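Re: beginner question about structure tokens

> Can someone show what the tokenized structure looks like for a real chain? I only ever see the sequence side.

Sure, here's an example I had lying around. Input first:
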Amino acid sequence: MLKDSVIIGQISEDSKCTDVGLRLPRSKYFTVNGVKFLNFNKLHCTAIRSCTFCKSRQGGFQTRFQNIEFHNVYSKIVWDWQHEGWFEDLDGSLSGKSAGYSVLPQNPNLPPEHCTFYESEFGDRRFSGAVCDETVKLHRFAFNNAEPSTLQMKTVLFEKPMRNKFGTFQNERITHSDGWMVTLIDGETYNMVFENAEQISNFTYKGRLDDFRDSDFVILGHNLTQVVDGVSVRGIVTNQSEHALTYHGNQFGDWFLEKTQEKGHALSYLVSGKGLYNHTDLEISFSMYHCYFASCGIKAPPPPTKKPTDAPIQEHKIAILHWSNRQTWKDAPAGWGGNYGKRMYGLPKDGDNVMIQAGNHVFADTDLPVMNKLYIDGTLEFVDTRDYNLTVTYIIIRGGRLIIGHNESHGFQHTVRIILQGDIYTPEIRMQVGQNVGMRSQTGPNVASKAIGVFGELDLHGKYHKTHWTHLATTVYPDNGTRITVMDDADWEVGDEIVVATTSFETWHTETFKIEEVVNVRTFVLNATFKHKHIAEEYTVSDGNVSRTYTMRAEVGLLTRNIKIEGGYYKNLYKHGFGGRVIVGNYLPYPRTKFGSAQLSNVEFIHTGQEGFTDDDDPRYSIVFMTVKPCHRSYFKGCVSRHSYVKGCSFHHGFNTAIGLNDSRWVDVVDNVVHITIGSAMMDLGTRNRWVHNLVTVSIFAKTPGSQKAAEFNGGFDLEYASNPTLVNNSVAGSERVGYKVKGQRCSEDRFESWSGNVAHGTLHGVYMFKKSISSVCSKIAGFKLYKNYDFGIYIQVACSIIITDVTLIDNRAGIVPLIVGPSARLHKTSKQYVRIENTLIVGMSPGFVCDLDSRYPGSSFGTRKQRGPTATSSYRHARLEGMLC
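And the corresponding structure tokens:
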């Protein structure tokens, strides 16, 4: 409490006025009683401000005032932001109104019929003040720990009927660090919206609402695209209320779900002080659950008990059937495609759910209907005599097999388009598990919607291509012809789409074209001229004794394939970022586990991946392998009889990571071309997977709208949590953040490790090794060529020794930045760590580098300097090997 005091702004007109007479503490319930404020009558001279030493968007606390006097005061109160706090006027002396009024910053939450707004007396031009009557009672609401992680740092909007939206941003908080805070009006209903995350309907957060007592309540809600099976508000899952929520008819923690007029559902829950006679802060732990019991979710018929054969087609001893033959559907289950009821049957029709039953090998040989669900418990094989469109919402392979082409060298010759339909409101499918399995069990993976779930075998093999990506043979210039020549023979055709990678600092100088004419196997005429320069340069440097040659050439990749997996278009496809996806994994129906594997070659993924779903338990990448482990190369339970691979495929214009390997082993990822992903293009959370000769162009930083902080730097290749990966001859040619995010190799030799021939350019950081290392003693970075990376060729910040070997660095603003951290000064210890650089070429500026043209800021560098560390032009100095001096 501050009591019976006089605070003077200035003694005379000539003296300097005190900036702030009274700065209030960073806590609630402080009382100011009997205080006089004199002579605060100049510009930037204020009597009262809230929240001492608060940073931006902190505060939200209540302060009480009574017996206040103002004499010769122009600016009584100034605010820093819309929810900084509120001042309760106990006797009317602060506001000039009546007892019970409040003074607070103006914000869209306030009802104009109960509040008067002031620009000068109780605010300024930045934030006007408001004086609200006794009906406006406020509660501070702070919350954090939002999951999935993609919600963190997003703007949260609080919507009210007939009232403007108002939002708050994540920042450093006083009570809930890395969270959100707003002030809410008692008795009101608010709909909380994580901005640009409408597609996410399964999330959690923890928070606190302050100062509740009997008769106080707030109703909070969320718009959901999916039905939920259970909700926890106070850490315990409860059943929903039988009616819409009211203060008198419900208790704190009750929730209600109702269908909205539009697609989706509205969830609301009650925060109430019923029965409390002292001011109490109420903790919430909000979670939504989807159950995996057979009694909930979208039901499917019991899975097959017969094991599908892996034998070649001519050796099958099961029923050989054709889609076009109505007899094929004679035994279709009731309610499924082909069963017309009343013992009538025939070909499935548009809109049907279709099942390929266990023990059947069905050959697709005719036009296929537009299907909702396609369950494959047996085998479905496409006959290579015609083109096909397979339009479907869900494909679930449950111990069965889908075959389109038999192997890499003998791929399917006709065109197949697998179009996955749906939007964020399409009901999700969760694989059913055995009995007595808890609601949060991970044995039933979430296939979701617009998806192919592989819990059997998937074989997709398009036309064989000799060259999937190569390099320019000669430099091309803007508006200077449409002909290109490449370094390797390519069997590309007229109409094929190609991508030509950036060779500048700017990721978005990557360009795409269609081939209009094939001059020969290395020369092609394109459908447009280039907008940017793409170099093909080779230079030799020598010190008189040793000479080394280095090249910088734009990569050229083929995007077109004849087997296509497409995320079907709908009006808000790009807004929601909700494309198709493939999940390969295992699940445990009763009585036997279904293991998944996939062998894909020369398949094109278009508009795939579902933005915002990146957490380990539900990663909705274009294709993700979840706990896929081949038995013939392992000695552990829970494995599948053949290994998986993705070879020669293309992924473009996606909404999430292209290829993810989560807790999977020995998956081969070879010769793929990736163009435009959100977040990391390639993700490895597994063991001994092989990444060989893949091209990544335009890996987009997973931005958080409204946030000025980076949630996490994504890389073209994210191998930070990978165990013993092989990384050979890959190229990241354009990433808004990092080329390769790694923890290095062991300095001692390991037969499972092989890193060589990898390239990164057109990024901010070529190789990025931050806080994580494969060894606590020594880690190694080897086998990279890194050029035109805007901040650093290599950035390392770890606690172990570092060896950098067999690396070439060209035209980077800073070549190598090795920071060895620790031990902490508080431990009073030293360590014997070292950085050794060997067999490495560093070129500050290549002969073809033109400062005025080539050293321009990339668009991805704006607004991120604090998160990227000191650059070559920074005044901060540390151990580094400099790059260019433009």
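Each token stands for a local structural state, so reading them left to right follows the chain. The two ends are 59 Å apart (CA to CA).
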